[in-house]
User: Fold these one by one.
Assistant:
Number 1:
Amino acid sequence: MVTLLGCGTCHTDGALTGNANSKFLLAGSNTGIATSNPLKSAKPGIVFPPNLTPDPTTGLGNWSETDIVLMLRAGEDRHGIRQSAVMPWAAYAQLSDQDARAIAHYLKRLAPVQHQVPTRVREGQASDKPHVYFGVYQKP
Ligand code: HEC
């Protein structure tokens, strides 16, 4: 399911620019995704797909499977904060509870990889971080 739904396309370093680093499979991307329209803003907001391996400090080590299911189906992190629409939770909301749980179960059993992705860049803030445009410009 994780392969089918393309989680690694965003959450693996290098994958967004066609050069996935297999050592960082699902361990987060240093290339970000712009959240604002390039025709309207020269300094876009940028989000970085986080580390989904169960590393306790940089990944999902402290997330329960239920936390991950909530994120996938409602787009809310475990503090109730709604994530950017760049993470396609609105589409994943269609997942059955069983399938969402299977994904969470799988992620919690990956080998932990320590890898901290850069912090989010606010629109208008100067940044030298590499990023791509997806055409998804909604604000969180
Ligand atoms: C189109 C790119 C993209 C795809 C595909 C994608 N994600 Fe994400 N994901 C993101 C981004 C970007 C964020 C960070 C959003 C934010 O900070 O607002 C994120 C956040 C998350 C988070 C929250 C992690 C944290 O530490 O806050 C989880 C869990 C997650 N994604 C799981 C998945 C899973 C599982 C899949 C596949 C079923 C998936 N994602 C597919 C881009 C993507």
Note: The chain has a mean pLDDT of 92.
Number 2:
Amino acid sequence: MIIGIDDTDSVDGMCTTYLTAILIDKLKGLGDIRGLPHLIRLNPNIKYKTRGNAALAVEIDTYPDSEEQIVNTAISLVEDMADMDCENTNPGIVFLIDQGRNDPGFRQDLESFMWQAMRDVLAVEDARSLIGKYGIKHKEFKNGRGLIGALAACGSVLCGLSDHTYELIAYRQPGNFGTPREIDRESVFRADRETYPGTWDTVDISNNTIVFAPHSPDPILFGIRGDDVQSIEKAFGIIGSEPAGLTLLYRTNQGTDFHLLDAQICDVLEERSYKLTGTVVDRPVTIRGGHMFFTLKGSGSIRCAAFEPTKGFRNIIKELIPGDKVGVYGGIADGTLNVEKIEILELAAYEKTSNPVCPTCGKRMKSAGSKQGFRCKGCNTKSGEVVRTTMGRGITPGIYEVPPCARRHISKPLVRSAEPDVYPSR
Ligand SMILES: [Zn+2]
């Protein structure tokens, strides 16, 4: 059986990953958990979403006659723990019992639904229609929007993903919920130094801050993300903190860029994320608050933004000039692409023109009038061509990313794409 759960969390403290960790604990005795639980980040650009837009799924080999008990355990746990008073919390639970094993049509439908949940905008009706078509056991609360993520997370378990990473989440002991987290900052930087790039996005070196622990009142103490389970466990051993309660390792789609669609600029839609290619039209401008904007032209044109929270990333953006050919990655909101990564493909030549120097007396010549060349005021020497100087550019072709403190969970850090000898410098 595969159990998918989504949308039980709220800004006030509950978190679907924690609920899943508790559920796994409660299911001992009713079946054997198979593999790791899956933590799936859905389309990060959706307007109606819970904080991180994470959905969870867990696979369990049931014991004889334990199915009903498992279903009831999961439902009553969600009833008990989900923050039902929060307007934005609309839990959904899905149980794949017989579906999928021998039905390629179902697997195909579920897989395509999962990709839509990561990249597109789905309605609860889309989830209900899939549930109805295959008679899937489920339970929904309030408007039932959680059914979307619950199905998508089941899809990840049943159909697999072409790329994945891991996150070890350490939860707080319940007595500490809501109090400031005690984490030994220096040990976190040390853990990063000793395990990067097997782990990543634990700290943000350029902004001198740790980024692997939330500031909200939720049950998470911290989460260590990475590609390599051994490195993650090593980092966990190095980090000093208040005593953790439950800890659980998840298989995730974090750091995969699965949210990105390829498209032409003229075809982009709100609430989706894209990789777009085009030519820079104007010099980036900075508005109050430090947000930076420029226009990209291809098949149509689009405004691109590097907002203040992207910090030093704006130092790359501000060097762009008209004519630069770039690829931008990011989500669309209000007609603007919020840049997560930029690939500088080709830099435009940047020339400065100046008046020639007089060959006789070495003084800078003045213009002799429109199309009249130049004249030296000192000795009256005429002529001379305008001098063109190719200026150096403050950037070089390559791919650049926002710092870890500004990165979305699902966005792929460059360190994951690079060969070991060309890891981006930090
Ligand atoms: Zn002269």
Note: The mean pLDDT is 93.
